[in-house]
Amino acid sequence: MSTLRLIRTETVLSIRDKIGPLWGVGFPLVLLVILGNVPSLREPQEVNGGIATFDLYVPVLILFNLAMLALIAVPTVLAGYRQAGVLRRLQTTPVGPARVLTAQLVANLLTAVVATVVFLATARFAFGVGLPGAVPGFVVAWLLVAAAMLGIGLLITALATGQPQASAIGTVLYFPLMFCAGLWVPITQMPPLLRDISHATPLGAGMQAFQDAYAGDFPAAQPLLILTGYAVVSAAAAVRWFRWS
User: 0.90 cut: is pTM over it?
Assistant: First the structure.
Protein backbone atom coordinates (compact mmCIF):
# COMPACT_ATOMS: atom_id res chain seq x y z
CA MET A 1 0.00 0.00 0.00
CA SER A 2 1.47 3.36 -1.05
CA THR A 3 1.77 6.23 1.40
CA LEU A 4 -0.70 8.32 -0.62
CA ARG A 5 -3.29 5.56 -0.59
CA LEU A 6 -2.77 5.06 3.14
CA ILE A 7 -3.28 8.79 3.72
CA ARG A 8 -6.48 8.73 1.66
CA THR A 9 -7.77 5.74 3.62
CA GLU A 10 -7.01 7.33 7.00
CA THR A 11 -8.69 10.58 5.96
CA VAL A 12 -11.87 8.79 4.86
CA LEU A 13 -11.94 6.71 8.05
CA SER A 14 -11.46 9.83 10.18
CA ILE A 15 -14.46 11.50 8.56
CA ARG A 16 -16.56 8.34 8.72
CA ASP A 17 -15.77 7.67 12.38
CA LYS A 18 -16.49 11.33 13.24
CA ILE A 19 -13.60 11.39 15.76
CA GLY A 20 -11.60 14.07 13.97
CA PRO A 21 -14.58 16.25 12.95
CA LEU A 22 -16.13 16.01 16.42
CA TRP A 23 -13.05 16.77 18.54
CA GLY A 24 -11.05 18.76 16.00
CA VAL A 25 -13.81 20.95 14.58
CA GLY A 26 -17.15 20.72 16.38
CA PHE A 27 -16.23 21.02 20.04
CA PRO A 28 -13.86 24.03 19.78
CA LEU A 29 -16.29 25.78 17.41
CA VAL A 30 -19.16 25.39 19.88
CA LEU A 31 -16.92 26.78 22.62
CA LEU A 32 -16.04 29.76 20.40
CA VAL A 33 -19.72 30.55 19.80
CA ILE A 34 -20.55 30.25 23.52
CA LEU A 35 -17.73 32.56 24.59
CA GLY A 36 -18.54 34.98 21.78
CA ASN A 37 -22.04 35.42 23.15
CA VAL A 38 -20.88 36.43 26.63
CA PRO A 39 -21.23 40.25 26.62
CA SER A 40 -18.58 40.89 29.29
CA LEU A 41 -15.96 39.07 27.21
CA ARG A 42 -16.67 41.29 24.19
CA GLU A 43 -15.94 44.55 26.02
CA PRO A 44 -12.45 46.14 25.89
CA GLN A 45 -10.54 45.65 29.12
CA GLU A 46 -7.90 48.01 30.48
CA VAL A 47 -5.96 45.09 31.96
CA ASN A 48 -5.69 43.66 28.41
CA GLY A 49 -4.43 46.92 26.95
CA GLY A 50 -7.85 47.92 25.68
CA ILE A 51 -8.45 44.59 23.93
CA ALA A 52 -11.55 42.49 24.57
CA THR A 53 -10.91 39.27 26.46
CA PHE A 54 -12.70 37.32 23.73
CA ASP A 55 -10.22 38.62 21.13
CA LEU A 56 -7.36 37.30 23.27
CA TYR A 57 -9.06 33.92 23.56
CA VAL A 58 -9.35 33.35 19.82
CA PRO A 59 -5.68 32.24 19.42
CA VAL A 60 -6.00 30.27 22.67
CA LEU A 61 -9.00 28.41 21.23
CA ILE A 62 -7.07 27.68 18.03
CA LEU A 63 -4.48 25.96 20.24
CA PHE A 64 -7.36 24.25 22.06
CA ASN A 65 -8.47 22.91 18.68
CA LEU A 66 -5.03 21.48 17.87
CA ALA A 67 -4.59 20.02 21.36
CA MET A 68 -7.96 18.26 21.20
CA LEU A 69 -7.12 16.78 17.82
CA ALA A 70 -3.58 15.72 18.71
CA LEU A 71 -4.06 14.47 22.27
CA ILE A 72 -7.58 13.00 22.01
CA ALA A 73 -8.38 12.02 18.41
CA VAL A 74 -4.98 10.68 17.26
CA PRO A 75 -4.29 8.45 20.29
CA THR A 76 -7.85 7.11 20.24
CA VAL A 77 -7.62 6.03 16.60
CA LEU A 78 -4.16 4.46 16.54
CA ALA A 79 -4.48 2.81 19.94
CA GLY A 80 -7.79 1.40 18.74
CA TYR A 81 -6.05 0.00 15.67
CA ARG A 82 -3.47 -1.70 17.85
CA GLN A 83 -6.11 -3.08 20.21
CA ALA A 84 -8.17 -4.45 17.30
CA GLY A 85 -5.13 -6.10 15.71
CA VAL A 86 -5.12 -3.85 12.65
CA LEU A 87 -1.49 -2.81 13.18
CA ARG A 88 -0.41 -6.42 13.62
CA ARG A 89 -1.91 -7.27 10.24
CA LEU A 90 -0.12 -4.30 8.65
CA GLN A 91 3.14 -5.72 9.99
CA THR A 92 2.93 -8.50 7.40
CA THR A 93 2.83 -5.96 4.56
CA PRO A 94 5.58 -3.67 3.19
CA VAL A 95 4.00 -0.80 5.17
CA GLY A 96 6.46 0.42 7.81
CA PRO A 97 5.86 2.44 10.98
CA ALA A 98 6.92 5.70 9.32
CA ARG A 99 4.18 5.32 6.66
CA VAL A 100 1.49 4.49 9.22
CA LEU A 101 2.41 7.46 11.40
CA THR A 102 2.78 9.77 8.38
CA ALA A 103 -0.71 8.82 7.17
CA GLN A 104 -2.20 9.63 10.58
CA LEU A 105 -0.24 12.88 10.74
CA VAL A 106 -1.41 14.10 7.32
CA ALA A 107 -5.03 12.98 7.78
CA ASN A 108 -5.33 14.86 11.05
CA LEU A 109 -3.41 17.84 9.68
CA LEU A 110 -6.06 18.16 6.96
CA THR A 111 -8.77 18.14 9.62
CA ALA A 112 -6.86 20.80 11.56
CA VAL A 113 -6.57 23.02 8.47
CA VAL A 114 -10.33 22.87 7.86
CA ALA A 115 -11.01 23.51 11.54
CA THR A 116 -8.74 26.55 11.70
CA VAL A 117 -10.20 28.11 8.53
CA VAL A 118 -13.75 27.63 9.86
CA PHE A 119 -12.65 28.93 13.24
CA LEU A 120 -11.04 32.13 11.92
CA ALA A 121 -13.94 32.78 9.53
CA THR A 122 -16.51 32.39 12.31
CA ALA A 123 -14.55 34.66 14.65
CA ARG A 124 -14.16 37.28 11.91
CA PHE A 125 -17.63 37.36 10.37
CA ALA A 126 -19.80 36.40 13.35
CA PHE A 127 -17.97 38.31 16.08
CA GLY A 128 -15.84 40.89 14.28
CA VAL A 129 -12.48 39.58 15.50
CA GLY A 130 -9.64 40.72 13.26
CA LEU A 131 -7.40 38.30 11.40
CA PRO A 132 -3.70 38.05 12.30
CA GLY A 133 -1.79 41.16 11.24
CA ALA A 134 1.08 39.06 9.88
CA VAL A 135 -0.63 36.23 8.00
CA PRO A 136 2.60 34.53 6.75
CA GLY A 137 3.97 34.54 10.29
CA PHE A 138 0.73 33.08 11.61
CA VAL A 139 0.79 30.31 8.99
CA VAL A 140 4.38 29.38 9.87
CA ALA A 141 3.57 29.37 13.59
CA TRP A 142 0.39 27.34 13.03
CA LEU A 143 2.19 24.72 10.97
CA LEU A 144 4.88 24.32 13.63
CA VAL A 145 2.33 24.08 16.45
CA ALA A 146 0.36 21.50 14.47
CA ALA A 147 3.51 19.48 13.74
CA ALA A 148 4.64 19.62 17.37
CA MET A 149 1.26 18.64 18.84
CA LEU A 150 0.52 15.92 16.28
CA GLY A 151 4.03 14.57 16.84
CA ILE A 152 3.30 14.31 20.57
CA GLY A 153 -0.01 12.63 19.80
CA LEU A 154 1.72 10.09 17.57
CA LEU A 155 4.30 9.44 20.29
CA ILE A 156 1.50 8.73 22.77
CA THR A 157 -0.08 6.22 20.40
CA ALA A 158 3.28 4.60 19.71
CA LEU A 159 3.86 3.99 23.42
CA ALA A 160 0.33 3.18 24.62
CA THR A 161 -0.81 -0.44 24.61
CA GLY A 162 -4.52 0.29 24.19
CA GLN A 163 -7.21 2.95 24.04
CA PRO A 164 -7.63 3.38 27.82
CA GLN A 165 -3.92 4.01 28.34
CA ALA A 166 -3.71 6.35 25.33
CA SER A 167 -6.73 8.33 26.51
CA ALA A 168 -5.30 8.59 30.02
CA ILE A 169 -1.92 9.86 28.82
CA GLY A 170 -3.54 12.33 26.43
CA THR A 171 -5.86 13.67 29.14
CA VAL A 172 -3.04 14.03 31.68
CA LEU A 173 -1.01 16.05 29.17
CA TYR A 174 -3.94 18.06 27.86
CA PHE A 175 -4.84 20.08 30.94
CA PRO A 176 -1.37 21.34 31.95
CA LEU A 177 -0.52 22.13 28.32
CA MET A 178 -3.73 24.13 27.92
CA PHE A 179 -2.99 25.95 31.17
CA CYS A 180 0.39 26.91 29.73
CA ALA A 181 -1.40 28.19 26.62
CA GLY A 182 -3.37 30.64 28.78
CA LEU A 183 -6.78 28.96 28.73
CA TRP A 184 -7.52 29.77 32.38
CA VAL A 185 -5.01 32.56 33.11
CA PRO A 186 -3.59 34.67 30.24
CA ILE A 187 0.16 34.13 29.93
CA THR A 188 0.78 37.86 30.26
CA GLN A 189 -0.83 37.78 33.73
CA MET A 190 1.22 34.84 35.01
CA PRO A 191 4.11 35.27 37.48
CA PRO A 192 7.50 35.56 35.68
CA LEU A 193 8.66 32.02 36.54
CA LEU A 194 5.39 30.42 35.44
CA ARG A 195 5.41 32.54 32.28
CA ASP A 196 8.91 31.31 31.41
CA ILE A 197 7.86 27.70 32.02
CA SER A 198 4.79 28.18 29.82
CA HIS A 199 6.89 29.60 26.99
CA ALA A 200 9.00 26.42 27.08
CA THR A 201 5.97 24.19 26.37
CA PRO A 202 4.65 23.61 22.83
CA LEU A 203 1.34 25.41 23.41
CA GLY A 204 2.94 28.23 25.39
CA ALA A 205 5.48 28.76 22.61
CA GLY A 206 2.65 28.55 20.10
CA MET A 207 0.67 31.20 21.95
CA GLN A 208 3.72 33.46 22.03
CA ALA A 209 4.15 33.06 18.27
CA PHE A 210 0.43 33.64 17.62
CA GLN A 211 0.47 36.83 19.68
CA ASP A 212 3.37 38.15 17.61
CA ALA A 213 1.48 37.35 14.40
CA TYR A 214 -1.75 38.94 15.61
CA ALA A 215 0.22 42.07 16.55
CA GLY A 216 1.47 42.29 12.96
CA ASP A 217 4.99 40.97 13.56
CA PHE A 218 6.65 37.82 12.29
CA PRO A 219 7.04 35.47 15.30
CA ALA A 220 10.33 35.65 17.18
CA ALA A 221 12.91 32.92 16.61
CA GLN A 222 12.75 31.44 20.11
CA PRO A 223 9.17 30.07 20.06
CA LEU A 224 9.62 28.82 16.49
CA LEU A 225 12.80 26.93 17.46
CA ILE A 226 11.07 25.44 20.50
CA LEU A 227 8.18 24.23 18.35
CA THR A 228 10.57 22.80 15.76
CA GLY A 229 12.39 20.90 18.49
CA TYR A 230 9.19 19.36 19.83
CA ALA A 231 8.07 18.38 16.32
CA VAL A 232 11.36 16.72 15.33
CA VAL A 233 12.03 14.93 18.63
CA SER A 234 8.48 13.64 19.13
CA ALA A 235 8.14 12.41 15.53
CA ALA A 236 11.51 10.65 15.64
CA ALA A 237 10.68 9.05 18.99
CA ALA A 238 7.28 7.90 17.69
CA VAL A 239 8.94 6.08 14.80
CA ARG A 240 11.67 4.69 17.07
CA TRP A 241 9.29 3.20 19.66
CA PHE A 242 6.44 2.25 17.38
CA ARG A 243 4.97 -1.14 18.31
CA TRP A 244 2.66 -3.27 16.21
CA SER A 245 1.01 -5.00 19.17
Answer: no
